[in-house]
Design a protein that fits this description.
Elements lengths: L1 E5 L3 H9 L7 E5 L3 H11 L2 E3 L3 H4 L6 E4 L6 H10 L3 E4 L7 H14 L3 E3 L7 H12 L5 E9 L12 H4 L2 H11 L4 E8 L5 E8 L4 E7 L8 E9 L3 E9 L2 E9 L4 E3 L7 H15 L7 H21 L1
Parallel strand pairs: 1-2, 1-4, 2-3, 4-5, 5-6, 7-10
Antiparallel strand pairs: 7-11, 8-9, 9-10, 11-12, 12-13, 13-14
């Protein structure tokens, strides 16, 4: 396959993944910063361009990978679809439901696919929990508590952005696992400019779900994700704390008779997501990274955002 990438931020990382894959024939990346482009060209030995149409209108490009700011996703996803390309789009797919629905409609109109980087579905601890819940080895899942906390290193994650730009990943996982909730409730506090802390409750008939997220942690607090999943006959507890020197990862299974450490594989979720997209394109197999999946989680994120803004 021939890959065109829009954006040299996270797009550079995507390019490094494509570079390792045997079924990728060529890669070209678009950006506006010529110094950055030249550095990427030297380091990765791939083609670069500062003309976006070298990718969008090139008939040889099979897949356009969009790593631009979210407010530009709609425009360039639709342009790529119009030009006969399949699309892989970074998350969040957009910042409004109208934009996401427009992409879905164009996907149907032009007969090409839009995939979204819902990478959490390929993260080993979340895959493990998903599979365990499907098997019901320890009974039904009765409660799920998830968290994602960070120092303020990622731009504006204030009350108006945290649900779409940070909590969206937990919403991606929850809708994959349980579908859309019956309703949601949310509480949150803005702190300093661009920082906030939010708790969202997603209500299902048979499972209690809560997501807690903060962008106001102290500078030396590690970026932290985790969950506690309460089954009828067991509890799974996962935690990952990311430091400059590496990560502390723990995943434990608690039952009435024992406690054990769960050995997780070390797969790269971004690489696995890209491999999945290429397989879907080459083999026409069903995807778990589709635009419909992204819309489900985006709807929760936007509803939560609106509820928060009503209270501010």
């Amino acid at each position: 396959m021939k890959i065109g990438i829009l954006g040299t931020g996270f797009g550079r990382y995507h390019a490094s993944i494509y570079k390792k894959l045997s079924d990728v024939e060529s890669i070209i990346i678009f950006g506006r910063d010529k110094d950055k482009l030249n550095k990427i060209k030297t380091e990765l030995q791939i083609e670069v361009t500062d003309n976006i149409n070298d990718i969008l209108t090139n008939p040889d490009i099979d897949l356009v990978d969009i790593c631009l700011p979210s407010n530009l996703h709609r425009k360039y996803v639709i342009e790529a679809l119009k030009n006969g390309k399949n699309v892989y789009c970074e998350t969040p797919v957009s910042l409004s439901l109208a934009d996401a629905i427009a992409m879905k409609e164009c996907e149907k109109e032009y007969g090409k696919k839009v995939f979204v980087d819902l990478f959490i579905k390929h993260e080993p601890p979340y895959e493990f929990l998903f599979n365990l819940a499907q098997k019901k080895e320890y009974g039904n899942l009765k409660a799920l508590y998830l968290k994602r906390n960070t120092p303020p290193f990622w731009g504006d994650l204030g009350i108006g952005n945290i649900t779409t730009n940070l909590m969206i990943h937990e919403f991606d996982f929850i809708t994959w696992l349980l579908g859309s909730p019956d309703n949601i409730s949310v509480s949150g506090l803005p702190t300093k400019e661009g920082e906030s802390i939010v708790i969202a409750n997603l209500n299902y008939k048979d499972t209690l779900v809560q997501v807690q997220s903060s962008s106001m942690m102290a500078k030396y607090y590690p970026f932290t994700v985790g969950y506690e999943a309460v089954f009828e006959n067991a509890v799974i507890e996962f935690s990952e704390k990311c430091y400059e020197a590496g990560s502390d990862i723990s995943c434990k299974l608690y039952t009435n008779s024992t406690v054990m450490d769960i050995e997780l594989n070390d797969k790269n979720c971004y690489e696995e997501s890209i491999k999945h997209v290429l397989d879907c394109c080459n083999k026409n197999i069903p995807t778990k990274l589709g635009i419909d999946d992204a819309i489900k989680s985006l709807e929760i994120a936007i509803n939560a955002k609106n509820l928060l803004l009503e209270k501010v």
